[in-house]
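Marked as duplicate of an earlier ticket. Keeping the data here for the record.
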Amino acid sequence: MIARIPFNRRLILFIFVAALAGLQMFMKLGPWFFVGTGLFFILLIGYSALMIGKRAERRPPDKNYRPFVSVLIPAHNEEEVIAETVKQAFKLRYHEKGARNYEVWVIDDRSTDNTPQVIEGLKKRYPKLGVLSRKRDAFAGKAAALNECLPFTKGEVLLVLDADANFPPDLITRAVGYLAPERTGGAQVTKRIANPETNFLCLLQSDEYKIDISIQLGRDSVGGAVEFKGNGSFIKRSALEAVGGWSNHTLTEDLDLSTKMLLGGYRIRFVPETAVWEQAAPDFKGFSRQRIRWLEGSMLRYLMYLPRLLKGPLHPRQRFDMVMFLTEFALPIYVLFDLLTQVVWIFTLGYLRLGSLAVVMGAVAIFILIKLVSAYVRERRYSFWQIIGRTCITMLYMFHWFPLVIAATFNLICGLETRGWKKVKRIKGEEIAKA
């Protein structure tokens, strides 16, 4: 459950939307369209130069850095998947002097299904499993669950996994060395979809995750704002405590913590050498509800931390990186008003006025195209025609982001934002294998 967004933050978002509408109208007036278009492409070129220019220091993982790790697995009504995830956690190969150099905690977050009984059975099977059962009247949310469990853990590094996570035995070994530098506060491993064969929607989500991998790789290479993704997140305890822990009153505790780490002067690394697999939403209702929550949570953290983001001690490349990625919220609103003004011009003047829709959509398409093709090529398992076909389909799919951003924006302005977290439909492991 999130706190009510202050009125002044909603007002800022409304002014932002109104400014985009005004800018869109203003840019249709003669030469100003070309000026605006030129500025837009200058930003794109500047960002591209940043990505291919001077690289940030990217130290390889320190193999001698072997801290004790606490594996945290929050579970709310996860009877279908929690047993398999715990089983994999106890198969992790991360030992010191023959003993496990990690502990495993399951947090039963007020489950109303058979999750408590499943966890009780797991406790008998794995006596060293730590279990925290939250009371029914406890503050709701993943962040609150993690904060409540934190005092019982002893790891110098925390690994947060979702209850449906699948991961290799060497997950910790491959990733933890990235946290060795003092000002590195965390690391995020690659996230992939575990059930792309379930249906076409899941396959498209799998390709969408490939785009995010390319983006995260680029951001890490220039020292940009790499983000935690909630599943497969390695967090250094000292950094977490320095920024005040997870924020309970947020929809996306992972993105919120990413921003706090950035403002606290900590770097988050991206780990491409290993991955966690999670289940995609198998139906459109769950998919759209999940994505709107992500969008609302992402916009919310920018609104809440706006003063610090504008004045905070960020490196210029980090600030520029964040500005560029704020355009993912601005462009859909801008395109909406472009379409509306085109309709007005047709009915009042009988013809179209020069618009920026084609320029904006073209630029977005080029960006997605570059990220997708690079992802497919990097995996080295697709033929030329497979790359062409899947790229075209996925590019069309990615424009679902536009109506969802618009919906999330107006939800926040009007106070209709999601008030809590709703889990997408889970599929049992054996059913995924058959799908």
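See parent ticket for discussion. The chain has one domain: 1-60+181-435.
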